[in-house]
Amino acid sequence: MQEQSFPRRKGLLTPVSVLVLLILPLVDLPSANGSCEFPSSWTGEWYQYGKSPVTINTTVLGDRACVERTDDKYVVFNIADNCYQCMIINGRHENVIQYREAWCTLERKNLEELCSVITSDDMLYSIFRINSKPISCPFSGSSFTFTYNRGYGECTMPISLAEKCTDESKLLLKYQACPDVEGTESNTEELQCLAVWNDGRNKYLVGTLKGRNVQSDPYRCFLYEEKPHHQGKMIYLLAQSGDPTCNGLTTVSEGSPTIKLTKVDKEHGRCKYPSWVTQHHDWHSLDGTKNYHFTNKNATLKIKAQAQDINSETFHEEKIVCHNVEKYPNENMQGSKVKLVAHVTSGCDIGYVCMIFHKRDSNIIEIQQSDQKAIMPDEACSISDPSTMPHMTLISTSLHQRKCPNLGRYEILEFAPSHTLSEAVMSRRQRRSDLSRTIKRRTWQDNTEDAECKSTNIQIGCTSSDQTEMIIANTCEHEEIAYFCHGSWEEKGTWYTIASQRNSEFPASLGQTFCFSMRLEGVRDRVLGRGGRQKQQEQELWLSVPSRICQRNSEDEYMYRLSNQGVCEDLTKAASSAAFAPSLSQPLFTLSIAAYVAINTLCVLLWR
Ligand SMILES: *[C@@H]1O[C@H](CO)[C@@H](O)[C@H](O)[C@H]1NC(C)=O
Ligand SMILES: *[C@@H]1O[C@H](CO)[C@@H](O)[C@H](O)[C@H]1NC(C)=O
User: Fold this and answer.
1) Residue 219 dihedral angles phi and psi, to the nearest 5°
2) Every domain of the chain and the residues it spans
3) CA of 55 to the centre of ligand 1 (A)
4) What is the pLDDT of residue 37?
5) 275-396, which class in CATH?
6) What is the pTM of this model?
């Protein structure tokens, strides 16, 4: 038999191979008879430059069917071209396969013969798994400076910056433009690492790039080298492939571009969060969806937030490293308000923020954070003022009972959304039942279910000797809601109280805590006596919805107007003396109280 089309082929034909060659053309096309299989770990969809997605299973690799195998050598039947060829295929990583191939022959020859013509000079094809699981990038450290070269000289001034994202498979490369080097521009690229492997002394990395210059085919291959620098600083030399293959990578000094990464040891100024923050390793938001965890010698704060979708298991993670403390009111870090600059890594959104920590109680803190990230730490507190930002109220895992503020017993005069309250001024002498009807008609006529849920009186600190309970009696289901107070503080005339339901199954368990705000305010003059000779200022206590955040400056909430029935002590005395009728000559009602409560929220949240 003569080889017609492949003059390079040489070697003697053994009797066995002659036999094989004589027989094979008579046999049917290779069937998947189980004798030849690709590794099952390769099964999946793969990307190869210039080809549509390559599907691999144990019998086919793209348009090649497995016919015979010895180690990494495969005789395959090329379905598209109707011929046999040898492929030497290596799985480099679960996400990368590389192969070389011989030419196609019409007759099936034996494996040795078909494969012997492949040399290391032949083209090496790389295929990358689609939707693969990323890996941590192989660079130790989280911050780097780098220089790069696109073939016109090294861009060193200004130096470029690279940072690892929260997800350690991602590295953000912030290229700077060097005015004196051609081919440089400022640009940001996000590298996601997918695979690393060694081939002899060479180390390879495959990843995808996201950025304005990478439109499609985002896969890139890197040849890289680690070089311990003097002073122990690690340096990484990288050569990037010019296309979505691993071709042309022979030395780290040639690439498109080459990159030299130097690890930066961030001097975060031995900065520590205040001791009253770090005395608890874990803090939680009131609804339990955010967890703040302090690690790494009290200098790193890791925030884990549940995704909006409750059923989703995904978390958003943020890392906040204390950089320097702006101001401590006193030296021992015990001041109740501390302002500091911190380095935030939120996904690939990285920079410096300004933060204010407020101590409210040993188990309650609040955090305010600027809403913009600065590139340089010293800009963090000037580009955005954290004191105007929302407060994040955090509680430690265990809460104590604390005395409630504004102790006393209050009776409802009215409740209504605040915007309707002004039109709905009602007499305090009106009987409660009348009031209920009025309210029902006025404010809840569109929602009869909510109409059944009205508080009738509120007792703060009257029911236990330690004055830590707050009772909101509610005609909704004829029950009352009892809260434990866990700490309160006052700010510009408003009291904020952290409370949890007393009768909840797990007292003060995660996500069962609320914030009430109360404000005593003189709102209008009340005319007393005949002819209006006496004037008395009424005060109102605003009691907010039991909210998951301690809201500031929010007026548009629902409210009750309550009258004060006296302080708890008076009631106790009155009860013990069995004199239930209050003396009318005693101005017990000098303080009339209004409180606002989103009663529908109460019902929905608490009466289920
Ligand atoms: C592999 O894929 C081919 C083509 O899609 C199919 O015909 C064959 O049955 C598959 N083999 C296995 C083992 O799933
Ligand atoms: C972290 O802070 C807590 C409370 O202030 C302290 O007890 C602990 O020793 C600190 N840990 C380190 C490593 O500084």
Assistant:
1) -70, 135
2) 16-129, 143-263, 275-396, 408-607
3) 9
4) 92
5) mainly beta
6) 0.64
